[in-house]
Amino acid sequence: MIHELAKYWWLIVLRGVLAVLFAVVAFLWPAITLAILVIFLGAYLLVDGLFALIHGFRVMKTDSSWWGFVLLGLAGIAAGLVCLFMPGITALFLVTLVALWSLVTGILEIVIAIRLRKELTGEWMLIVAGIFSVIFGILLFMQPLAGVVVISWWLGVYALFLGIFLLSVGFRLKKVSNPVKHH
């Protein structure tokens, strides 16, 4: 399973890069309007979901946990499409949408990491990313009427940590896909 995942390490790295870029946008422009925040978030969720979905289908024949990536991808795509096609939604719906997406993503990341624990060192980082996603979702449910600036910062912190963890896992998978030969 690990070698099949390692072939597509770059998809996880790309998801990490996108998460970090989203974090930068959230920190630099925290007071952007709700509609623009929804569009940025929708674009991120859609692209992240597409990459997870592609990854799931690429490993379908060789990895029994392919369904986790497919579900992760579908959740991201659905959340992204709602954001992009309904930009006038209320802040409450945005918070609920992000909270649901974060909870589903976190749970699936934890499940995937548990399945990888015997094949990949450092899988704890994906577990931490999953726990962070679940905690973030719970915090959003607890504060549904938080201001757009606070939501933007929360999203930025979440995306930054998620991006760092995904980059770390992706580069560890790259090492598995290209083992260094010792002479």
UniProtKB/TrEMBL annotation:
One Pfam family linked to the record: DUF308
Coiled coil: none
UniProt keywords, alphabetically: Membrane, Transmembrane, Transmembrane helix
Xref: InterPro entries: Acid_resist_chaperone_HdeD, DUF308_memb
Lineage top rank: taxon: Bacteria
TM segment ranges: 9-29, 35-54, 66-87, 93-112, 124-145, 151-173
Name of the protein described by the UniProt record: HdeD family acid-resistance protein
